[in-house]
Amino acid sequence: MNLVKNVMAQDPLRSIQYARFFLEDLEKLLRSEGGVRVSEVRGRLQRFEASVKELKEFVEGLLLEDYDELIQSLEMRLEALQRYRPEEYLKESERQELLDEEIPNWRGILKTISTARRWGSFLTDLESLKRECERGELDWPYVRERLRELRGHFKALEQTYSECEYARKVTVSFEAYLEEAKTRRGALSQIDRDRLTGLCEEWSENVRIVIIYCRAPVIKESGTEKGIEEKEKRGLQVSLLCFEIAGERYCIEARRRRLVVGRYDPGGLDPVIQGAAACGLKIIEGGSVLYVFNSVECRWGCIEPDRDCTHREHVEVYVEDEAVTVRMAGRAELPVYYGFTPGERKLLKKTDTVVLRPGQRLYLWISGVYMDARQKRDQVPLLLSFESRRGRATVLPS
Q: Of 35, 146, 177, 315, which is most buried by a Cβ count within 10 Å?
């Protein structure tokens, strides 16, 4: 048990997987034929509760409300079971309530916590729910579970773009529908399905608008701000290289270094990093992952003639004192296009080297990088900007 706790403490996604396993074990018991003893139900519930409590250190900010709701609901159910003697059988009505209402709700809250860390799949999940509505019958418990999963995405959107009023309005629209869905029972009517289909389309477009037009705060590498402040005080030249994609920005101090941009592969070539989504776009230096952009997804597993995938190491960026050079990484084969304006696209050949001078910007369209990789919608460029000034560091506006 100590080994399990140590593994869970290191990896929030693994902790969520354990919680889901215990919840599935409870559901399997409740769906078994014949009577179910209360002692068995109580034991599995307590195991699930313990695994949920292990998650608390990973839950913060806007998700605390969901986490508290899950804990309170579990405590109330365990308290209700205290009126039974251990050898008694659970009433069929309570068994059905757990299966139809509470377990889907608990599973949905776990998904809320999970998707808030992996919101690169936001648009894909919206499209998936829309298609389910179009295909046929759905019941409200299942829809509520799917909406809970989406809530994690919306919370991440609201937190990332906290200064954007439009992001807040989109989240308010979603929350209003979720509250309405909590009161509904039975199957969705055709009118209900048509409405939810329309809302999924509307939310998808609104999310795209937020990601494209709203500005996320600049994230700097650890230690950058302190180093810049010291140089500014001494009146020395300060340079920043900023990477920006789909509204997410990351800036580093532009000193001599070699960086590589490619697909993030946790558990493969890359370490598992809390909050970083698999198949995001990463920046690495040496053997270290400096940053992972969760706002985009990278396609992988291409087989000829498909040439729209992202290599784990796709583009090399060399930072010098007065210039940044960009070229294809050694093993990268799939195409990259570049331009110094959004409308300019040239093929970056294996033998090409593109030079970025202070004050310039460079757009890179890297194979397989999308806001929604599975649907291949909204391919977005990675923008590099390089600024060098004496005594003062600023980030170029978009």
A: 315
Whole-angstrom CA distances from 303 to 307, 324, 331, 374 are 8, 33, 16, 15
- Distances from the Cα of 129 to the Cαs of 20, 91, 121, 157, in angstroms? 21, 34, 12, 18
Determine what percent of the chain is predicted with pLDDT higher than 70: 84
227 and 373 assigned to the same domain: yes
Structural domain including 170 reads: 122-214
Residue 353 · residue 372 · CB < 8 Å: no
The amino acid that residue 390 corresponds to is R
Token readout for 334 is: 């799939």
- CATH number of the domain where residue 74 is located: 1.20.120.660
204 and 257 inside one domain: no
- Measured at the CA of 150, the angle between CA 103 and CA 152, to 5 degrees, comes to 90
Residue 141: DSSP 8-state: H
User: Helix, strand, coil: what percent of the chain each, to 5?
Assistant: 45, 20, 35
Write the CA distances from 376 to 198, 368, 373, 395, integer angstroms. Answer: 21, 8, 5, 31
Question: Is the pLDDT assigned to residue 258 strictly greater than 90?
Answer: yes
Confidence (pLDDT) at 11: 53
The Cα–Cα gap between 246 and 160 comes to 12
Give 263's strand partners.
281
| CATH (domain of 253) | 2.60.200.20
Nearest Cα residue to 317 out of 348, 342, 346, 283: 283
Contacts of 36 (CB under 8 A, 6+ apart): 29, 30, 89, 90, 95
Q: Are residues 291 and 323 in the same domain?
A: yes
DSSP characters over 239-271:
EEEEEEETTEEEEEE-SSEEEEEEE--BTTTB-
Average pLDDT of 57-63?
69
How many domains would you assign to the chain? 3
Are 253 and 376 contained in the same domain?
Answer: yes
